[in-house]
């Protein structure tokens, strides 16, 4: 079989940026963890542990990967929109949300690589009020603002092994990396004074998965995730500058002082800023050969502490989160020639709640998802489309948000590592 | 997928309470500012006027003008060229200038002055008795088409000294002219120097040569061309003598004619504001005595580059070397406020960054100021003392 289609998509993976939409959640702690917004990939739908991609396969659960018949390259592209209610604020971004390459090994094991966004740190905040400052004979109006860009990515290496016919385990090692740039500024008297800082992140997370088929119709799934090496940051603070040309960068021209007249301060190592401990559980009940209903529960607590050197856009972070998912999936019939039987259908409801560390305020989100997929060719190529609509409420001062997400995914199957017959 | 990738992105700012952001602002004022003045021998080489006579107890006995070397000077040696006239011209803005008020012109073929360095100390006991005297000029009052005065020309016919001007034997010929008040009915006149105009050099001191040239086209025909050439000055200077002014009677102030300059010492160092601060404004207010100072007087404030260990207050040349660009600051007096307002932001910021050291500031009068005017600092007035006011932004530790 030809590998050309897969090769054509590799440059596309490299070119596309990884983005989600800005919302208030981006301002908490290290940013908005991607698994807290919408769905992770179009092929999975709302499910994480429970299969949603194919009859027995979840893209985000390595313990199910050996059920794949062919090597799959899966890509998902997401368009996100956050609308803050009562304010005419709309934030809209798009970007690659999931990329994976999974190789099944003789239906007994698997190996896979994935690149996914982990946390989105982009946020642009303006203070709710201007403040007055009396300087000698002048009264100056000051307005603070905060901009943060960048984020954290995860490069996942996963594997699975079928221990018994009804029991398999999976392992995923997530290497976290990324950087962010922060601009804290005070605007007064015609221009902004900006404090720029950069943080580089690195850490390793490990997650163990198990899949157990209790009966013919009931499957159980579970996972435990924790930090193998805590997420650390290297923090570098730059000297304050007067952004006279208003471009947000310390450059030559009118900015003061000149960039070459200041030197960067020493780097500060921020240790243990993110130490997640997560437990997830899922149960799937097959209503018939093609249709299943499932329930998932996940709880995560962050035991990391963020050093005061790192200024947070919003002075709070998520301490722990719980989420519940209920979903219905209809898989395609692989042996049917009927076009309708090649279409998969996914829908579900989700409830998430996050407790903030400093205020104990609750951020709750209720959402629903609806998706379709179309499977074609014998290798199981698949095109998926998924829509997510959610509402996020804050128990404290922040306004509610409406989240919309549209994801398009494509998954290409192929045979890899098979010795081919030489042409004579 | 590609169509979705082109989905238009929007990024609107979200309002949030940013009270927790550490970036803060504050002010500091420094009023323990000390002043002192010193004198140097004045040099008026950069002034845009040439002076002669006495004004405000300052005497200008002599002004020099040097005319450039030019290949047209050899015209008189060329058999095909006939020089018809040779004029030395100076300009004035005085519409009432009469011939009897004008100075005499003298010529000397040797180097006599240095525009940027010469002072009255170089001309003590100096005489131009042995110079070639040319006499007084013709005075031409010019008007525009509406009959409104534009400028006055002082034109000397210097054909009588053309052999000196084109002397080929003198390998070091310097065409030096001097003007001096002799037998004049006025005691002070003011003319334009070469710094007065730029570009077309309309008012610059100059020599204008009118000549005819026979140009042979072929054996049977010759073309007669009539033309002129303007040769400008390479330097000019008025020698001002302030020696009649008593050093003891001088106030804290500035004057180009007296050579009076001031030093300002401000107790500011890197510890004056929190480490890492950014100076948003640093305004030094220098009060002036409005009763004895003129409006629009321009000054230059320059940080001192090297420490000078001396108690002397009178010097031949200025011992205090300024840093110049980019720290040098130029400003004008405002008689209404009675202040010079000086921005020291750039220099003070670089002190906090450890790039510069505060050795004080030199305050000098702009070279274009009228040298017969002076300005006095008023540091005894309790209601308006010299003060440095700084607004800065910092990150608290």
Overall description:
The complex is a heterodimer of chains A (424) and B (397). Chain A is elongated. In chain A, a hairpin with a 2-residue loop joins strand 6 and strand 7 (138-164). Chain A has 1 helix and 19 strands. Residues 1-7 and 9-20 of chain A have low confidence and may be disordered. Chain A is mainly beta and 424 residues long. Chain B is mainly β. Chain B has helices at 2-5, 162-165, 345-352; strands at 14-16, 24-30, 34-40, 49-55, 58-67, 81-92, 104-108, 132-135, 138-143, 149-157, 175-180, 188-192, 206-218, 221-241, 253-255, 260-265, 278-287, 298-303, 314-315, 329-332, 339-343, 361-365, 374-376, 387-394. The longest helix of chain B has 8 residues, at 345-352. The model of chain B is unreliable at 1-6 (pLDDT under 50). Chains A and B meet through strand 2, strand 3, strand 5, strand 7 and strand 8 of A and strand 1, strand 2, strand 17, helix 3 and strand 24 of B.
Rg of chain A, rounded, reads 24 Å
The average pLDDT score of chain B comes to 89
Cα-to-Cα separation, first versus last residue of chain B: 49 Å
In percent, how much strand structure appears in the residues of chain B? 35-45%
Given helix and strand content, the structural type of chain B is mainly beta
- How is the largest sheet of chain A built, in terms of strand order? 2-3-4-7-8-9-10-13-14-15-16-17-18-19
pLDDT averaged residue by residue of chain A: 89
Please give the radius of gyration of chain B in angstroms: 29 Å
**Would you count the extended β strands of chain B for me?**
24
> CA-to-CA gap between the ends of chain A?
18 Å
Roughly what fraction of the amino acids of chain A lie in strands?
over 45%
